[in-house]
Amino acid sequence: VEYVMTREANADGSTTVRETLAVRSVRRTYPQDWRAYNKAQTTEKEQFLELLDDLCSGLPELPRGKNGRPSVPIHDALFSACYKVYTTMSARRSMSDIRAAYEDGYLAKTPHFNSVLNYLRNPLVTRILYAMITESSLSLRDFESDFAADSTGFTSSRFIRWFDHNYGPRQGHHEWVKVHLMCGVTTNIVTAVEIRDRDASDTKLLPALVDTTAKNFKMNEVLADKGYGSLSNYDAIIKHGAVPYIAFKTIHTGRGGGWWRRMYHMFHFNQVEFAAHYHKRSNVESTFSMIKAKFRDDVRSKSDTAMVNEALCKIVCHNICCLIQAMHELGIAATFWQGSNTRLAS
Predict the structure, then answer these.
(1) CB 156 within 8 A of CB 298
(2) With contact defined as beta carbons under 8 Å apart, do 119 and 125 qualify?
(3) How confident is the model over 212-237, as pLDDT tens digits?
(4) Model pLDDT for residues 256-274, shown as the tens digit of each residue
């Protein structure tokens, strides 16, 4: 919108005022490489199996008990678990796809569906899935420098019920898993994840997401909504050389000093420049939409550990799909576990 007012002094001493109002509608479009996109989508399943096989090949075996039957190799178990999540089917109904993967040479043998579910219930698997998420993001470290953080929930079939004296004899809602993550704003690759209890504070978990991402990526900007606005979060971002673009609440003031004061003034007095950076935060919402639309917005598991591990498997699958798209659009070669598995030992 452009508004112009002009004043002209006439010979008789009067003044002529002219007001001009011009409204222009500009539609911003973002180019899409349809050839690369179509190629990635039509060959995704084959490439997904190849990349998942490579990613699982670098995993160390879990400690085995002295008694009982030999356990399923960690490669076959997590390959099957992630593939089950990718197909969005239950463990039993996904067995036909897992048998096909065995026939294609991706598995040493076809695991029983109960063995796959037992691995998802194993708390030792959680650390391995975190490492798989980190490892699957490293191929894009040269393309990501701006990152956005937020949280989302995945519902489950479990219910929480309680007696309510005010509104009725019984109330209830679904149990859910709250996932906090940080992603790159260019390729939507997830670089760090934190899953705690469902009521965990978003603000307190941002430093962990920033520290994990900074270990492998050069960070220029970190974007987050006003729920992450705190001095400790500013310090966590600035110590890695990044600029925090975090929206401010109405109760915030500029008395924090340093970068807090600087960004507070930009937020209030130079909104155009601030919004140009902050707008990239919407990519984390796009990441959540991609994960939930493709791999469901709920988890099938019942136990707490299995629910967490299933949510992590969704993010592993998402990262692999982002890599496939980047392989066609950016011409990268996805490689995993170069050198050693030091990230699993940390």
Answers:
(1) yes
(2) yes
(3) 999 999 999 999 999 999 999 999 99
(4) 889 999 999 999 999 999 9
Spatial separation of the C-alpha atoms in residues 312 and 294, rounded to whole Å:
14
The Cα 120–Cα 309 span in angstroms is: 6
Q: Considering the entire predicted model, what is its pTM?
A: 0.87
What's the number of CA atoms in the CB half-sphere (13 Å) around residue 46? 5
The rounded distance, in Å, linking the Cα atoms of 139 and 99 is: 30
The one-letter amino acid code at 295 reads F
C-alpha span between 274 and 267 (Å, rounded)? 6
